[in-house]
Amino acid sequence: MRSCAPWTFMLPAIVVSSETCDRYAVQHANRAGRNLDIGVGAAVETLGIAVDRIDDAGIADGRCCRGCRNRGTYTRFEWLGAPGNLVDTSLSRRDAMKARAFSFSGRYRELLGGPVSLVVMAIVAQGFDSNLGRWIHTQWRPSRGDPLGWAVDRVWDFDGMAAHPQERVFPNGLLELIVQLDDRYVDVQPGGTTPTPATCVTGIFSGPIVVRAPRRPCRVLGVRLHPAGAWALLAHPLNELADVTGDLGDVLGRTAAELAERCADAATGIERVRRTVSWLGRQLQRPDACIADPAVQWVARSIAATGGSRPIGSLRAETGLTDGRLIALFRQQVGVTPKRLARIHRFDRALTLLTRGGGTLAGVAIQSGYYDQPHMNAEFRQMAGLTPREFLAATRYPNSLSLPEPV
User: Do 93 and 223 fall into the same domain?
Assistant: First the structure.
């Protein structure tokens, strides 16, 4: 028996399904979000996943749950090495994977010489067809314990066409990479419109962005990054990207073209998302990747986690940094000052609470950390270009805070 350190494998469960199966996919992701220190076969059995076959590339085809066997749905699994490139290429994965239906947990333990931990990530594709348009939305979000969780908020893919020509997008405290595979969107500004680059990056913005979509079906992929992930990936002063949509090629060079090429020949949104997650894993694990200052990363995470409600002064005091030093580092590694980031997250929290409904405007203002409703109204006018009542009265896209708009 060969001897090696314990391994961690990620098992992305890529799910295309009806609403019923979506529910099961979320259930599976939640149940497997924790590491399972058990054999692979036992872990898969625990999730109730039936595996049909495993091909030579280590891809297993199966179904997401026993209840969906006759619904025409499927699930795909791919084994990937954990961070730190722990996969030992001298070990024949083909031999390890060919055992029928993962019923080889004991043998797999023996081959690896240690316990196996399993993390499941669900990539869910949903189709929408209504008076708002017709499209397929595919999304992956890191589960708890995922090695990309510190850097990536989500990867999404849009394939189709919205009925309304324009969309109003609100600040959220994140940076975003966009890959447009067909006709390009344009930014709508008071002075006119500006075509966006085919592969672009948007820094943290403090006001609404209005974009105009092509008037025929298109495919668009997006990556929302936490500031620490953007700093590690882009290695570029993030204050230069704030409130700007720029060409990703100007920042990443050939690496941006590589991402676009990976997406261009993918047949489905699921495949584009899978390839993008793989690309992110390699880029964020580069030896020369920029590492955010621990104090900056902690303060930014604390602001996001509390919805901007915790006083910046108390957070700064815990870091031991001066005001000037913290602000300078934030501008470089986040893109905005701590106070501006807190305002954005407070607004985003209010937006989310309004979308959920069930409360008064005054109650939402207090829950979001505003002094009162007039304070919230003023922030909405600046960051949304709307009042809270106008936002509530507007038509909204499903599973999104964005608003469709006429020209």
Answer: no
pTM confidence score: 0.74
Q: What share of the chain is helix, strand, coil (3-state, %, to 5)?
A: 40, 25, 35
Task: Work out the angle at residue 224's Cα, subtended by the Cα atoms of residues 219 and 225, and round it to the nearest 5 degrees.
Answer: 145
**C-alpha–C-alpha distance, residues 73 and 215, integer Å:** 31
Q: How many residues does the chain have?
A: 407
Determine the Cα–Cα distance for residues 381 and 191; give it in Å rounded to an integer: 20
- Check residue 191 and give its pLDDT: 87
Residue 222 lies in a domain: yes
In a domain, 354, yes or no: yes
274 and 146 part of one domain: yes
Pair (196, 75) in one structural domain: no
The answer to whether residue 31 sits within a structural domain is yes
* Domain match, 252 and 371 both: no
Beta bridge partners, 335, equal none
Residue with tokens 């699930």: 75
Mark whether 78 and 50 lie in a shared domain: yes
Whether 289 is covered by a domain: the verdict is: no
What's the CATH code of the domain at 209?
Answer: 2.60.120
* Nearest alpha carbon to residue 299 among 269, 327, 263: 327
Domain total for the chain?
Answer: 3
385: left (phi over 0), alpha (psi -120 to 50) or beta: left
pLDDT in tens, 182-209: 999 999 998 899 999 999 999 999 999 9
Residues 101 and 178 in one domain: no
Nearest to 187 by CA among 175, 177, 200: 200
Show the DSSP H helices in 48-162 as ranges: 93-97, 105-112
The pLDDT confidence band at residue 215, using thresholds 50, 70 and 90, is: very high
Separation between Cα atoms, residue 166 and residue 395, nearest integer Å: 12
The answer to whether 10 and 119 have CB atoms below 8 angstroms apart is yes
Per-residue pLDDT band at 407 (split at 50, 70, 90): confident
Range of the domain at 332: 294-405
Q: Which of 280, 248, 224, 266 is nearest to 400 (CA)?
A: 224
Nearest to 260 by CA among 236, 276, 244, 246: 276
